[in-house]
Amino acid sequence: MKPSTTIQAVLILVLLILASWQFLKIDSLEEEIHELKQPSLYVTMNQLQNQSHKLFYALENQNQELVDFYIHELEESAETLIEANVEYHGQPVGELSRTMLLAPVESLEEAVDDGDWELANQRYQVLIQSCNSCHVSTGYPAIVIKQPDMENPFNQDFSVRE
Fold first, then answer.
1. Residue 12 to residue 118: CA distance in whole angstroms
2. 115 lies in a domain?
3. What local confidence, expressed as pLDDT, does residue 92 receive?
4. DSSP string, 56-117
5. What backbone phi and psi angles, to 5 degrees, belong to 24?
6. Burial annotation 12-44 (CB, 10 A radius, 16+ → b, else e)
7. Three-state SS at 156
8. 27 part of a folded domain
9. Taken in order 107, 108, 109, 110, is the CA torsion positive or negative?
10. What is the pLDDT at residue 20?
């Protein structure tokens, strides 16, 4: 083999190695970008809790405009988790949001649209139970959402579960 052929072969080999390394780096960067695009589960869950909290007071006051607003916001937060197909510690939070959260929200919305405030309040309770069932099914039973009250302004039960 001529020296120029050897040099060409070595250069081709080096270029192939560099190209392979670049592809690996691109894959790594694409994975990082995907992770950065994922919504923060903690932030989104806080939004859901805040929205459901305000929804409670809007329901208590039979404020149709505010109820519609908070229901819409709940749906948007759920869609954020669903569209991103969020997983948390191996738990399919996005899928669970689709199956466990949207139906109670839509059911509540129907009762409000019908002007049945008593049924809307009952369906709000179903929504809260759905949240708690999801927390249990994902291994986070200590996160207990509840109806707000004057003793505890947050719609979360902070007591220890036995």
1. 76
2. yes
3. 95
4. HHHHHTT-HHHHHHHHHHHHHHHHHHHHTT--BTTB-HHHHIIIIIHHHHHHHHHHHHTT-H
5. -65, -40
6. eeeeeeeeeeeeeeeeeeeeeeeeeeeeebeeb
7. strand
8. yes
9. positive
10. 81
Range of the domain at 83: 41-157
Same-domain pairing of 151 and 80: yes
d(CA 139, CA 134): 9
Tens digits of residue pLDDT in 126-144: 999 999 999 999 999 999 9
Q: pTM for the full model?
A: 0.75
Residue 32 and residue 55 in one domain: no
Whether residue 88 lies inside any domain: the answer is yes
Residue with tokens 């197909």: 85
Decide if 82 is inside a domain. yes
Q: What are the structure tokens assigned to 42, written together?
A: 């903690």
